[in-house]
Structures are given as C-alpha cells and as structure tokens.
TrEMBL record:
<feature type="domain" description="Nucleoside transporter/FeoB GTPase Gate">
    <location>
        <begin position="44"/>
        <end position="139"/>
    </location>
</feature>
<feature type="transmembrane region" description="Helical">
    <location>
        <begin position="121"/>
        <end position="142"/>
    </location>
</feature>
<feature type="transmembrane region" description="Helical">
    <location>
        <begin position="148"/>
        <end position="169"/>
    </location>
</feature>
<dbReference type="InterPro" id="IPR014226">
    <property type="entry name" value="Spore_IM_YlbJ"/>
</dbReference>
<feature type="transmembrane region" description="Helical">
    <location>
        <begin position="81"/>
        <end position="100"/>
    </location>
</feature>
<keyword id="KW-0472">Membrane</keyword>
<protein>
    <submittedName>
        <fullName>Sporulation integral membrane protein YlbJ</fullName>
    </submittedName>
</protein>
<feature type="transmembrane region" description="Helical">
    <location>
        <begin position="6"/>
        <end position="25"/>
    </location>
</feature>
<feature type="transmembrane region" description="Helical">
    <location>
        <begin position="206"/>
        <end position="231"/>
    </location>
</feature>
<keyword id="KW-0812">Transmembrane</keyword>
<feature type="transmembrane region" description="Helical">
    <location>
        <begin position="251"/>
        <end position="270"/>
    </location>
</feature>
<dbReference type="InterPro" id="IPR011642">
    <property type="entry name" value="Gate_dom"/>
</dbReference>
<feature type="transmembrane region" description="Helical">
    <location>
        <begin position="381"/>
        <end position="400"/>
    </location>
</feature>
<keyword id="KW-1133">Transmembrane helix</keyword>
<feature type="transmembrane region" description="Helical">
    <location>
        <begin position="320"/>
        <end position="345"/>
    </location>
</feature>
<feature type="transmembrane region" description="Helical">
    <location>
        <begin position="37"/>
        <end position="61"/>
    </location>
</feature>
<feature type="transmembrane region" description="Helical">
    <location>
        <begin position="291"/>
        <end position="314"/>
    </location>
</feature>
Amino acid sequence: MSLSKIKTLSLAAIVTFMAVSMVLLPEKSFEASVQGLNMWWEIVFPSLFPFFVLSELLIGFGVVRFLGVLLEPFMRPLFKVPGVGGFAWAMGMASGFPAGAKITARLRQEGQLTRDEAERLVSFTNCSSPLFIFGAVSVGFFQNPALGFLLAFSHYIGNFSVGIMMRNFGTKHLIREKKQKRSIIAEALSALHQTRLKNQKPIGQLLGDAVISSIHTLLMIGGFIILFSVFNKLLFDLHITSFLAKLIEGVLIIFQLPVSLSIPSIAGMFEITLGNQMASQAADASLMHQLIVASFILGFSGFSVQAQVASILAPTDIRFYPFFIGRVLHGFISGILTFLCWPFFERKFLSEQAASIPVFLQEHTMWWDILFQWLKQIGPVFTIAMLFICILFYVQQIVWKD
C-alpha cells in the first residue's frame, strides 16, 4: 500500500473516531467546546487582534521594510535571515503564537523573504507570550509569579538557540548583499518611501483589509482551539491518553522524571494550556520536575498550535516540517535549561523569596494576574465588538463594489 493511501486511511479513521466519540459522549464534547470557546474569546482574540492589525498596517505602510534595513546587520549574521525577520521575531515574542507564523507568511507573500529564509524564520519566531507564561502558567497554575522568571528565561533562550541551530537550514549558497553606498538610515528611509509608493490603497481600505484579514485568521485559530479542546477531552475520557502515557513512561525514566508526569506530557503535546495545568497538579512530582515538563510543553507548543501554523502556512510555499523540527528542539532545549538553571533559581528566588523577588512580582502586587483577569473580563465584549466592526467593513466593501 502506498504512503498516500495510508495517509488517506489514517485521516479518515481519525475523523470517523472523532465523530463517533462525539455522538457517544455529547456532554463531554459540549463541555470541552465551551471551554475552548471561552479561552478564545476571553484571552486569545483580544490579546492577538491588536498585534495582527498592527503588523498588517506596519507592513502596508513600509515600516517593516524600514526596520528590516536597520536590523539587517544583526539578523543576517546570527540567523541568516533578512532584517525584516527581526520584526516577526519581536512581534512573535510579544503577542505569542501563531503571530510569528502569520507575519512570516505575510512577508513571504510580499516577496521580502525567500522560501529558505521564511522556513528558517518560522522555526524560531513562534513562542508563548509573556502574558501567558506569567499570567496563566506561573500565577494561574503554579500560584507563584516568581516561577515565571525561570519559565520565561528557559523559553526565550531556547527560542534563540533554535534560531541559531536552524540558521543553516536549506540552501547554503546565500546571495551576498550589495555594499551600501549610502548610510543605513538613508537606505531605511528610502525603503520606507518606496514601499509606501508601491502600495496604492487608501488608508481606509488598508485599515479595513487589516481588520478583515486579522479576524479571518483569528476565527481559524478559534476553530482549532475548540476542535483540539474537544479532541483532547475525548482522548482523556476514553482513556486513550492514559494508554499513550504508558508508551512514554520509559522516556521519562531516562530523563529521571516521575511517571506521574506522563499524562500531563501527552495532554500538553495536544493542547498547551491543559498540559501545563495538569503538570502543575501532578502528584509525586517535585516542583523542579513539574517545571521541566511545563517548559517542554511551552516549547513544543502542542499540536493545536502547530495545526494553526500549518493552516497559516498552507497558502504559501513555506514547508511545515522545519517549523515542527524547531518545536521539538525548542521543547527539549527549554526543558534542559530549566533543569540546569533550577539550583540557582531555587537558591536565589525561593529560599529567600521575600527578599529576592522584584517589587513588581511580589505577592501584594501580582500585576500579571490582575492584567490576565482583566483581559478575561473585558475579552468577550471586545471580541464581539471587533466582529461587529468586521461586518461593517464587509458591508462597506460590498457598497464600494456596487
């Protein structure tokens, strides 16, 4: 049997399994879909929407090209990508996944990246946002804001390491940049002006397109979040997660991790939020072991996020497997960094916690938690308002066409 036929049968079997499971467990499916929906409209949509719209406008107005020329001397030697990759990297870290993939795909469609450069870039520009690491994981799950330092350090240094390791991915015959005859500032301003002249859209249309494009992407992301929430819940209730956990207990033993973390690891490989929550509650596991698994889950990102990225990359010629390789590397590197940094972190931040934690992370402030809770309260209203605005833009475009 050919590989193509095996793939077809496998996909058909998975879809059939989900359909039958949802019929057999309708209450569990509904509960999981509601949880996924709440996560999307409370946290994901309001936190990502401004970044998506802003990135579209910055690309349209030529600001990204301007920054790309300025960042060229930094990004090219380190990661072998153009300077515009610095914008995708920064926005990916600030807003979280899958912003890096969306911006990379957009830059590829604009012709500002080659396929090899885009594949290098997408492998390390997708990571968790500081809000998720500090607000959801360290405060919400582990009930200790200081742990966000260790998780964030391991996550972002691991992300940087993936970029260094993937810098030679693809063709090694790179086109050398021409020597600049003018100063880098003059080159950057020229690139900004030329890009703006090339884009003939009026500001109103550019803003409308940015809103519509961002909401399209976020609706797709919401669908994947709900789908994988249901899928993960069905796997857990049908004890398939427990069966898969048995298969990786040997791997955990090799890394001297307790087998009680096997189920959180499997859950985290499918959905990052549930995996981190279960890791923080794992019995017979020390805090260090829980954080190692949480770091791996944050780096691997889960199949839910990876499916979102695959959907974003599909309209381009950017291949998915470099991104997947990057996620596997990121997961292991982050876990190893957490293990190596734990003795120093425990001595510096936990043994003398009251004296060592900076003021903005102390118990009486908890501003990450305040921001996270505020976002959950205002998120649904903001999401509905933006969807209504998107409808207005659609109507306006129809009127213009008529």
